[in-house]
């Protein structure tokens, strides 16, 4: 089996890179190493992410992809290495600080409130933007009400964008898996992130659901200029929508470059065929 054989989804038309205004490096990771006790999840990984690009992280199971996302949004603190975000050296970033700096993410296992409606789940993505606290809600009802209306409008925009108007009142737990994934994307978008981290947004989806999700990811990138870092196992999707791809294997970087370059990298092919170890 070659890398090309892994392609499962019909190609999605992608505008040329120049049209999507790829900019300067906004995230620069240098020499990142992360261990859990004796387990080395990441060893001396360096790569960067440019503004407005779609940057994918791929690799076999256990390669360190989710650990890398957790380093980027401050859930894990690497023992070694340096992270620059928008020109600032980050020490121990906490997840809420990363969120406040415009980094949002979705998770491998959907993390939504199953009993709450689609609308209310997406509304939770606005939490960091809310200025009025409970006390102010009681004292300045008018101001809090105005703020609530503004948040609702933003959430409705996200709902329209993701074409989920028909299910806005439905409890999330009643939705099929593919739609739940879309709602999770909606919650991340409600935070109006500049950097969006997507952990296997297409896992468990059928071909049609994958094509829809691809379209939404490309539209988010194109219409809002959002920079996207994506982990995905489906090589067809990755090669179609990414500007650049970084490849991890056993916690080490074995490839980095444009999709065509990575596809033809012998070390990457060997890792996917299981012949490198
Ligand atoms: N919290 C943790 N505690 C201990 N070990 C961990 C932890 N998180 C990850 N690891 C280990 O680090 C290594 C990399 O795991 P990680 O989940 O980052 O890989 P992955 O590439 O995302 O895998 P998958 O594709 O299966 O999701 C694995 O050996 C894993 O067991």
UniProtKB/TrEMBL annotation:
Top-level taxon of origin: Bacteria
Stored InterPro entries: AAA+_ATPase, ABC_AA/LPS_Transport, ABC_transporter-like_ATP-bd, BCA_ABC_TP_C, P-loop_NTPase
Annotated keywords: ATP-binding, Cell membrane, Membrane, Nucleotide-binding, Transport
Keyword Transport: yes
SMART domains: AAA
Residues in ABC transporter domain copies: 27-275
Pfam families: ABC_tran, BCA_ABC_TP_C
CDD domains: ABC_Mj1267_LivG_branched
Keyword Cell cycle attached: no
Signal peptide interval: none
UniProt GO molecular function: ATP binding
Family matches, as PANTHER family: ABC TRANSPORTER ATP-BINDING PROTEIN, CONSERVED COMPONENT OF ABC TRANSPORTER FOR NATURAL AMINO ACIDS-RELATED
Identification of the protein by name: ATP-binding cassette domain-containing protein
Organism, as annotated: Aromatoleum anaerobium
